[in-house]
Amino acid sequence: MMSRFSVWGNSLLQKLLSSKNVSTVPSFVSLPRDTLIEEETLPYYKPEQYYAVNIGDVYNARYQIAGKLGYGAYSTNWLCQDLQVLKVSTMIPEFPTATERELKIYEHLSQVDSIHPDLKTDNLMLTLEDDTMLADFAKAEAKDPSPQKQVDRSRTIYRSRRFLRPLKGNSYGLPILCDFGEARIGKTQESGPFVQPHIYRAPEIIFEMPWGSAVDIWNVACLVTKTIAALFPWSCIRRLRLTRMAALIGPPPSDFVNRSETTDQCFDSNGAWIAHKDTAIPSISLESIEKRLSGQEKESFIQFLKSMLKWLPEERKTAAQLLEDPWLL
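RE: above sequence
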């Protein structure tokens, strides 16, 4: 698909990121070549999908790599001097459309009807109120370089370095959505190649129905249950995920079942579960698994979730409606 890195930076870092401080670094821990680290541990890892980045590299005579922030299925993220994002892509013949699609999405962001069917915590960034975190990161990397291993002459793989938490009295800023490689333009998309991570997939995606921006609303509910409520009732196993959906939000209505030829593998015409007789619908509910809240706050929170977790996408609240939900006010 492509390899990329995000570029952050700050004027406070210029001295720290000079060639003297970054390119000439103290000794580092060299890892054995047969030890899989970071992106190498992913099940579908292909080296050619990752741009070979090295700490100390300078891009466009302006952006100097200070350290590795993390990695994903097709990319790595790095801290650099300037506060902006730079994408470095390697076009893979079998995956040309994702790069082209993402570039179009960035051009389209100022307009309406953009869909981001890959909403998950990995695709959310937090702005910083305390930018000394960046300087501390660069200092730590310059003083104690991250462990690394040289795969060959052109490729070195580094371990990521974690940010320290903001100083007392400061906090993270607002979340910002990023990574638009799977985003789409338009109100409705035909069924086809699956979008969304397995565990976050909306019902219409699972059953290969046409879909639209309502899949984002389903993802918001999944993110809320994971990040705010510290619970995540879904499962990576398809049949378990479906039985938990039925338990938490009720059986699918016949209108939903009739929209796809694949639903009859799991539900009858009335929405009753018929697949995997050894896999029963569990006796759980949103009310029973949410244990951190109580009283009116819990009731409002559960209603907030239920307004997004609907089998029929047109019954889910829109983003504008969610902003007016009592739980957020």
